[in-house]
Structure formats: structure tokens, C-alpha cells
Design brief:
This protein has about 170 residues and is α+β, with helices and mostly antiparallel strands. It is about 40% helix and about 30% strand. It folds into 2 domains: about 80 residues, Immunoglobulin-like (Sandwich), CATH 2.60.40; about 70 residues. Helix 2 runs antiparallel to helix 3.
Length: about 170
């Protein structure tokens, strides 16, 4: 049995697929805070490497963008570069912010524990004494006003400066 390539039956069995190459797009990358190194890859192929601010041409598509730099935590994300003119503004998490978050959480936790022990000691030393109860209330309030905000602020800093989290916003030209 012979098959003629032009028949509808043959096209249903073996449709010919021709992929046109993706169009070329421009990419402009900037970082408002400090210089970052950028690595852009698509599949197994590296598309571009540069330091911000930078501009280059590449094929339209989905890319894996990695960034880092002095004092920054190396991080990455997926970006779609589909417009003819793509402008990205990157803000990577800093090592200082992450370390500051750990320090704030540790100091805040220690303050809450120490103040709690002092309150317990003041209440246990002379039960029913109004002066000791007043001092315990003052110490407890101080611990709450100092320790708890430090713990919360430190946790927020840690969460905002994790690797893998960074702000990449597309900038629309006016």
C-alpha cells in the first residue's frame, strides 16, 4: 500500500509540524539599589549574562533569570519575555536584611523570656504585695513593648530576604 503525502488521510496520520523561530525581543534590565549580576537561560542554553544596568536582544520566550551581587543573596525566578521591548526592574534580597532579621528575632525572643522570668520572680518573691505586683506589671509591659515588636520585625525581615524571593517588575514605557 502506498501513501501519497498530499492526501487528507496521510496528513491526519502524520501531520507535518514546522515551528517558526521565535521573534527577537529587546531586554533592558536595571536594579535601583546596586549592581547585580544577571544570568538568563532557556532550557540548556544560556541566553545572556550581564551586570545591571544592561540591555541585549534574545528570542521571545520563557527564561530562568538568576541574579546576585555583593551583599545580595543569590536568587532566581522565571520570567516571560514576550513583548518587543521588555524592561525589568530587579530588587534582590540583601544578606544584611536577612542577618538583621535573625538578630532582631533573637534579641526580641531573649527579651520576652528574660522579662517573663523577672515578672515571675517579682510575683513569687512577695505574693500579695502591691508594690511587687506593680513592678511585675511594669516589667511585663516593657517586655511586651520591646520584645514582641522585635520578634515580629525580625520575622518579617527574614521572610522578605529569603533566596528565591525577589521583586522583578516589568516597567511599561510611557
Amino acid at each position: 500500500m502506498s501513501v501519497i503525502a498530499g492526501t487528507a488521510w496521510a496528513q491526519e496520520l502524520a501531520p507535518m509540524r514546522v515551528d517558526a523561530p521565535a521573534p527577537t525581543v529587546q531586554v533592558h534590565i536595571e536594579s535601583p539599589d546596586r549592581v547585580q549580576w544577571i544570568s538568563l537561560t532557556q532550557g540548556e542554553q544560556g541566553a545572556a549574562q550581564c551586570e545591571t544596568p544592561c540591555a541585549f536582544n534574545t528570542r521571545a520566550g520563557r527564561y530562568w533569570l538568576a541574579a546576585g551581587g555583593d551583599g545580595l543573596r543569590a536568587t532566581s525566578l522565571v520570567v516571560d519575555l514576550l513583548r518587543p521591548d521588555n524592561r525589568l526592574r530587579l530588587r534582590a534580597p540583601t544578606s544584611l536584611g536577612f542577618g538583621g532579621g535573625i538578630a532582631m528575632t533573637a534579641v526580641g525572643s531573649a527579651a520576652v523570656v528574660m522579662i517573663s522570668l523577672m515578672v515571675a520572680g517579682a510575683l513569687a518573691s512577695a505574693p500579695g504585695d502591691p508594690y511587687n505586683q506593680l513592678m511585675a506589671a511594669i516589667m511585663g509591659g516593657t517586655g511586651g513593648f520591646v520584645g514582641v515588636p522585635l520578634v515580629i520585625g525580625g520575622a518579617v525581615l527574614i521572610a522578605r530576604h529569603q533566596p528565591g524571593l525577589f521583586d522583578a517588575s516589568y516597567v511599561v514605557r510611557p
